Amino acid sequence: MIGSILIANRGEIAVRVVRACKDLGIRAVVAYSQADADTLAVKLADEAVCIGPAPTQESYLNSKNIIVAACLKRCDAIHPGVGFLSENAAFAKAVEDAGLIFIGPKSETIALLGNKVEARKAALAAGLPITPGSKEAIADLADGKRNASQIGYPIILKASSGGGGRGMRIVRKESELEAALALARKEAKLFFGDDAVHMERFLEQPRHLEIQLLSDGKGTVLHLGERDCSVQKNHQKLLEESPSPILSESLRNAMCEDSVRLFQELGYRGAGTVEYLVEGSSYYFMEVNARLQVEHPVSELVSRFDLVRAQIEIAQGKSLSLSQKDVQLSGYALECRINGLSAGRIEKFVMPSGPHVRVDTYLEAGSVLSPYYDSLIAKIIIWAPSREQGLSVMQRALAEVEIEGVKTNLEEQKLLIACRPFSSGRFGTDLYAKVCDQEKKHA
Amino acid sequence: MIGSILIANRGEIAVRVVRACKDLGIRAVVAYSQADADTLAVKLADEAVCIGPAPTQESYLNSKNIIVAACLKRCDAIHPGVGFLSENAAFAKAVEDAGLIFIGPKSETIALLGNKVEARKAALAAGLPITPGSKEAIADLADGKRNASQIGYPIILKASSGGGGRGMRIVRKESELEAALALARKEAKLFFGDDAVHMERFLEQPRHLEIQLLSDGKGTVLHLGERDCSVQKNHQKLLEESPSPILSESLRNAMCEDSVRLFQELGYRGAGTVEYLVEGSSYYFMEVNARLQVEHPVSELVSRFDLVRAQIEIAQGKSLSLSQKDVQLSGYALECRINGLSAGRIEKFVMPSGPHVRVDTYLEAGSVLSPYYDSLIAKIIIWAPSREQGLSVMQRALAEVEIEGVKTNLEEQKLLIACRPFSSGRFGTDLYAKVCDQEKKHA
Amino acid sequence: MDTLNLEQVLSLFDNSTLSELELSCPTYTLKLKRSSTEQNQARPSAPVAKVATAPEKPAKAEEKTEIITSPIVGTFYLTPAPDAPPYVRVGSTVQAKDVLCTIEAMKLMNQLEADYACEIVEILAKPESMVEFGQPLFKVKRI
Amino acid sequence: MDTLNLEQVLSLFDNSTLSELELSCPTYTLKLKRSSTEQNQARPSAPVAKVATAPEKPAKAEEKTEIITSPIVGTFYLTPAPDAPPYVRVGSTVQAKDVLCTIEAMKLMNQLEADYACEIVEILAKPESMVEFGQPLFKVKRI
Lengths: 443, 443, 143, 143
Prior knowledge:
Chain A is an alpha+beta fold.
């Protein structure tokens, strides 16, 4: 049994994990940087340990201080939250080696899925459709040309150890390949310390969908349906919804079944997500996020599962006692991320409340939005019986928000929720550019 | 179709109705007293009309100003909220006569149910068990003695036009009857302008349960299960939960079926509640609340129905398209009322948020808790898969509350949620006295 | 300035246009602040230096006016009938119990009477428009 | 400007378009602020007057101490081994690079060295207890 958890994260996600600990009667110890001493996670936690100065490299990425803090605070487990060390196989291994429970997949699973080439191989082996592309890292230009002509242009070069849009290059014809390959290698080396790149078919207008899974590592894998995360700005998700307005029942079933099978073959343990690109009636495996995701509340509201609670219970060795037919997905959920566009002291902070609305945040009036970390201010998540009602509820909720002292994307989000393409459900990943950049031009 | 609603209420319930209007795309006009000019309902509404000074008699009970405001603001309907004019048949009639829609039952239904003797007759006629008692008002002392000996002591005398604990007298033996009857008549006359009293068996340790119903007035009546409201202080509800921890499946079914039948016989239109006293495996009809109730979110969380939205849709003449089997009651919900114990400016106001928690309030830091109106500050409502988990979640939520500037019952509510009798589910309506008054003695 | 000459500092502050002044030394901390209402008022000339100032004009006694507000919700009319002349105009003087206007509510014309004799200084509500409870209708001066 | 001529500063400020002014010297700290409404108005120059100030007394030099904090999370030890004498005691003086304590983290004994020669004024952490990043360990005085 887990009696105490060290939470190696910050912001709203640290608060989320603290709340799950409280609900389970588990002592929550928050590891924080000096910049975060006054934040809500520290305030709500049973105990807190300062693990370093503001820069993430010396605090939230400082494995050693985090593990020592967990040991000296007599914690049984570490919850890595999202981002930071949550998908770092070496950290997971070090946590295990220190005799602690890592709340997440086994370190081997993280290591395998962290390598894009290996992950694609695993997906292929499990029978998942992948975008046509090189299975292996590109050896040289000749190899690249051969692969590209098989796949068909446009192709995209990706860092094999990468993620988050870095080290990616789109190549539309063979004459551009040499320069692009050199550049992609250079960036891959720079950002991820590994210059291996592979090649995939580039989809011009795909939707980003992901399947949420829960797996006990003992043979039971459940899916909680999909999240449609197609509204993005520079590869950062802005709005996430479930169910997707464009997914047919047969496509949904196929994607969910594929995802469950992949997790079964991986012997996956914990919560995780399989990401897909969908174009027309085809879908392609993209990657596995071997951790909790920022947008997890969307799935919590349609399934009424508590994903963080489930993560902790699975880490305790509890088997999932339910089967897929016990998972009732009902209604519609939508998450809107309110991001800061500037750092500073928040003078006024009014969040919506009342029926159908959930707010996950760590800020209040007087808090400082730190320049050191990501700019997520709050997640506003709504549930309604239908998408149409849900969009109304979200508009009502956003209208209640008041944030003064820092600039935010609130007005942009209001525009997106209210725009015709979004309400119709027919839009691509360029929606933000079309709606918000247009607006700026007119302003 | 209703395009605009005048909301003739204040506080959190006015905010609740404003939000439902926004969700439905209906223009919300709030009628407010001078004391409430700066409250959230006024701020969130599309428009607002001042209908009188602070005293309720001249504002929230001023039918004429309210109806004129609705007409001049071109509203189609009036939502009376809870309390105030919500169960006033003459008001409902005046609204109808002014050509407006009253969002609630027909005025005749309200008139019938507002008379306790008539309501008991209707319940009897529909085959509901009622506490043994006089069907008619007590004629004189001899009639009282005859009735009391048939019923068996202890008995309780109640004002036939009354409610809310006023004009009630418990009589434990015949020798006390004469004095008690005179006093009860005097109080009934004083409070309700009608000295008619009737007599019922007095139950020493009953539970207060109520069945939530939705009826379209066209033959379809749905129930959303029960709420257990047994934790009270001076007849004021403090905690409400669903499902009840003491109700057997067979008793629940019988109570729900009886309630549905009663509403069918009444031709009831709108949302309403049938209240029962439960002792052992017996239940007795008490009264019908022909309106929305403060604790309605409890049923909203277990059923995922939006009761205020449903009220408005029914008032528009929409039929309920669902049948009882489509109503899925799942998990557990609990509401905790945070009440002010003093009036004044609220200096600090932090409400809980995050997973499983809903907050309905109308206050924020800097607001004034008015001495003119009831003291409800906020309703904190949680949902969890089970009662055990729910109590944990509520404790976590209450621990996040910070209110400075006015005294509240927060600490008492924390005591109640955490106490052994409440978590066991085995307690009576004297729980508050046992737990909180005890605590005060020790303090 | 080791010895704080408070009088002098106050005098300097008074003659300046500052709204705040903070001064610290190892011995003293001094904070001066002028409220926003006061800083706009004329201040008596400082004793430090001779300043030629015109004698202060006596404050012109402001004419006291009062506001008559609507006692109900309804539609505001200045005339008893569409073509009739108004009950009052700006500049009219009325006696107590004289009718000022009618406010229609539920088809009833409610006549609003003056509580005291007064002159109508300004009509504040728009004729034939809705008025709320407490809404200002007339600015008047008692006579 | 060792002797603060307050009058002159105020006069300069008054005639400037500044809204705030802060001035510090070893002896004084001065803050001036002008509210936004007035700062745009034309002001007459302040009347000049002679201010007599006493010669400044030298500020008494406070003993400057510094805090050495923990650079890592770990367990704080004052001795290299259980029975060994402590690296330092209150009153000890150490040279740069001298060891002050060890902090154990993951079975590794990390020796914390002094950055500069100093005297130990106070030991702030409890031996054999956990210390966080940034936690004060020693109060020292440079020598």
